[in-house]
Specification:
five-stranded parallel β-sheet; 27 strands
């Protein structure tokens, strides 16, 4: 028989997952018969017709079992088995001899030659399949184990490669804290070779003192399974130590017993140096910032003291009889003083923001009233330039919210003042809207649109930077420090909002900002915005040349249920009035702007009155400070711009002769009448004669009996000898300052009496106010002192003191 083989080639390899069986027999018919017997098992059978062919097959493949015919020419089965066992790859491959079952053919010595079993002819099919299946299953299991072992080895190799090339030191110890492994980076950091480290205890890196500290740290730690420590090792020849960071984690065995530790070692000497340098720089920066803040606070204090005299005495001077030129000079002096105070306050606020000491309040505020107050404050500036200043509140805006009214007013005043400053003609409009945010939060959006000079595109990106202005040339037309917008931006951020702008040169600008507030329930809000039963259905004509003003008035009027028509000129108004009369539905009220083009408002009102076919009542809108003789208008009324909602409603009710009065929206607002001040006895403790003169003049002119003290000691003696309705206390005085004097007065009074004490101080920081209240003072007023806030605070303090006495 030739030495040929029917073995498989690479193309005949076993399919993936198929169990390979090697069948060796020189008789082709017997091979076919055995192959058919094994077919149901689904195994892949490789045939070899000689021992030599079988050896070639084994060089190319591994087999689950070899079925080997004993009697073959050239090389019989026993010889083939012996050679198979010589190869390391196949020394454990199971061999089943197939024999004709001649007596003594298979003996014990034959098993020693490599057989694990034998099958004698005639072959029992079930026996053959059973034996082959056993070895096939074992092969599959062995292959699975081998694959897993290879995967484990690959993972181990990868892990070893990672640890050896890691940029951080890696180590492992046994249960006795002796090193069992250290990587190359660990050896590089410590200077201890890995071979030397193995078997040594963990503290080989440090001295005994530091070892005791680490042990104490570990003993005091709450988590005993993980530990981090920072070590410092002396470096020969260097004054700076090597700083190491060790992080280790316990290896737990059965029942949670620690069997060793694994961890990392990092050299953070460079980082520690940077950290120390940064800490030192931070401390220096904080110290410099505090020095700057203290310097600014002291400068503010020193400037406010003389400014109190300038502004206070100027305010008193303006209340005297002056001729036109004198009043102009005094008013200019007052305006200059206020401008200087704006600069001082801006610098102080900027310093607070830089140092993070500026805080915002969260108290109740009326949005409409706040916006009206800002408009009232700035409308004289707008009118002096011939500008219209108006405000529009969307119906979505809650009437009452919680926020910081002072900072909100500051931002709004700043942006509106800027808009007026950079606008030569036209109008400045404040629009307020609201959107709901997460939970009960509301986002208020303020937009200020002007028809001014606009801002160049390259300036828009830096307009909110400190000390930055759109016009920085030496011939710039507009003054200012360039802090206003920067402070406004920072304040808006503190109030959890955003700020932005859009502009076009020659057309105008829009500045906007948002703040997050909480809407509060307001019982009067529904009444103020719901239809008025007396005004509901009343027909009214609005005559105004400003489209924005017509929109604002129409919005107010329609909310009250009135039927609104509009006209942008006297001619259009005249036609509308006659058309309504001809249709049998005459206009009940005509709301006329005094400053109409061509035919002014007064002339239109007079013409309406003289036309007997028009049964309409005229309400004339005048500009602030303007006056008009209403004698010829009979039942007419006048209303001063800017128009506030409740003022408008009250004027309409008067014009229509409605008897039921409507209360003002907010007592104490810009247009609310104030009661006459109560007369009382006051003590002013002030060492500066000019400031003393200002306070005494304001209070005396208001009807108070005023006594003075030059220092805190005099104030204490005066308070002991005489009961006062209130004491105005300067904080910084010789001999005894205001804080010490307040404490002494409180000790004198005990529980029997409590005199209201108002702090008058040039300190304008939040911490100044907090200290005054903490020292026992009841109120706080920052210099320079203005007449209206001072009188209001005295009245409030006296009322509070009276109420306290009545309940004691």
């Amino acid at each position: 028989m030739s030495d040929r083989s029917t073995t498989t080639s690479a193309d005949d390899a076993a399919p993936h997952g198929a169990v390979p069986i090697l069948l060796v027999d020189d008789d082709e018919s017997k091979r076919l018969a055995l192959k058919s017997v094994l077919a149901p098992l689904g195994y892949h059978v490789v045939e070899a017709d000689s021992g030599t062919a079988a050896l070639r097959c084994l060089m190319e493949n591994d087999f689950a079992v070899i079925l080997l015919d004993v009697r073959m020419p050239i090389m019989d089965g026993f010889e083939t088995a012996a050679l198979i066992r010589l190869r390391r790859q196949s020394e454990m491959t199971p061999i089943i001899f197939i024999t004709a079952n001649q007596a003594g053919e298979i003996g014990p010595d034959r098993y020693a030659q490599g057989a694990v079993d034998f099958i004698a002819a005639p072959i029992d099919v079930d026996e053959l399949r059973a034996k082959v299946s056993v070895f096939g299953s074992l092969f599959v299991q062995a292959e699975t184990v081998a694959a897993r072992a290879r995967e484990v080895q690959r993972s181990a190799d990868q892990l070893r490669l990672l640890t050896e090339t890691a940029p951080i030191g890696i180590f492992q110890t046994d249960a006795e804290n002796r090193y069992t492994y250290t990587n190359a980076r660990w050896a590089e950091i410590t200077g201890v070779p890995s071979a030397t480290a193995i078997g040594q205890e963990w503290h080989v890196l440090i001295d005994d003192e530091r070892q005791a500290e680490v042990v104490e740290e570990y003993t005091e730690s709450s988590d005993k399974s993980e530990f981090t420590s920072r070590l410092e090792r002396p470096v020969p020849g260097s004054s700076s130590p090597q700083v190491l960071l060790i992080h280790s984690k316990a290896l737990l065995g059965d029942h949670g017993v620690v069997t060793g530790w694994v961890g990392t070692l990092a050299d953070i000497t460079a980082e520690a140096g940077v950290e120390a340098a940064m800490a030192e720089a931070r401390d220096q920066a904080r110290a410099a910032s505090m020095l700057k803040s203290e310097f600014l606070a002291n400068m503010s204090h020193e400037i406010r003291t003389p400014m109190n005299g300038v502004i206070g005495l100027t305010e008193l001077l303006l209340e005297t009889d002056l001729d036109e030129h004198q009043r102009e000079f005094a008013q200019t002096l007052s305006n200059s003083g206020e401008s200087l105070m704006t600069v001082i306050n801006g610098i102080l606020d900027f310093s607070k923001i830089e140092t993070g000491t500026l805080e915002v309040e969260n108290i109740e505020l009326n949005v409409q009233q706040l916006v009206d107050d800002v408009v009232d404050l700035l409308v004289p500036s707008a009118k002096s330039k011939g500008l219209d200043l108006m405000a529009i509140l969307d119906r979505s805006v809650p009437a009452v919210v919680s926020g910081d009214p002072n900072r909100l007013r500051q931002v709004l005043t700043n942006l509106a003042g800027n808009a007026i400053k950079f606008t030569h003609s036209g109008e400045v409009v404040i629009r307020v809207s609201a959107t709901r945010a997460a939970g009960s939060a509301t986002v208020l959006r303020f937009e200020l649109t002007d028809t001014g000079v606009g801002i160049a595109p390259d300036k828009l990106a830096v307009i909110f930077e400190p000390f930055t202005q759109a016009d920085t040339s030496t011939t710039r037309e507009y003054g200012g420090t360039g802090l206003g917008l920067a402070i406004s931006s920072q304040l808006v951020t503190l109030m959890r909002g955003e700020v932005g702008t859009s502009s076009e040169l020659g057309t105008g600008s829009t500045f906007w900002f948002t703040v997050k507030v909480q809407a509060l329930a307001d019982e009067g809000a529904v009444e103020r915005w719901s239809p008025d039963s007396d005004l509901d259905g009343v027909r009214i004509l609005v005559v105004d040349g400003s489209e924005t003003h017509r929109f604002i008035l129409s919005d107010y009027l329609t909310r009250w249920g009135m039927v609104v028509e509009i006209a942008d000129s006297a001619a259009a108004a005249w036609a509308a009035l006659h058309r309504a009369a001809d249709e049998g539905g005459p206009v009940a009220v005509t709301l006329v702007d005094q400053s109409m083009h061509r035919l002014n408002g007064v002339s239109l009102a007079t013409a309406i009155h003289t036309d007997s076919t028009l049964a309409t009542c005229v309400v004339l809108m005048t500009h602030e400070g303007g006056s008009v003789d209403l004698g010829e208008l009979e039942a007419g009324a006048s209303l001063s711009k800017p128009i506030h909602r409740e003022d408008l409603r009250a004027s309409l009710r008067r014009a229509l002769d409605l008897e039921t009065p409507i209360a003002q929206a907010t007592p104490g607002g810009a247009h609310a009448a104030r009661a006459e001040p109560a007369i009382g006895r006051l003590l002013v403790a002030e060492d500066n004669l000019i400031n003393q003169m200002v306070a005494v003049a304001i209070l005396s002119n208001a009807g108070y009996l005023v006594e003075t003290a030059r220092n805190g000691a005099e104030a204490v003696r005066a308070a002991a000898a005489q009961e006062y309705d209130a004491i105005l206390m300067d904080c910084h005085m010789p001999q005894m300052n205001g804080y010490q004097a307040t404490a002494a007065i409180r000790r004198q009074e005990g529980a029997r009496h409590h005199t209201p004490i108002i702090a008058l101080t040039a300190g304008a920081r939040g911490e100044d106010r907090a200290r005054c209240l903490a020292e026992g003072m009841d109120e706080y007023l920052s210099k320079p002192v203005r007449k209206a806030p001072l009188l209001e605070m005295v009245r409030h303090s006296m009322r509070s003191g009276t109420a306290e006495l009545s309940t004691s």
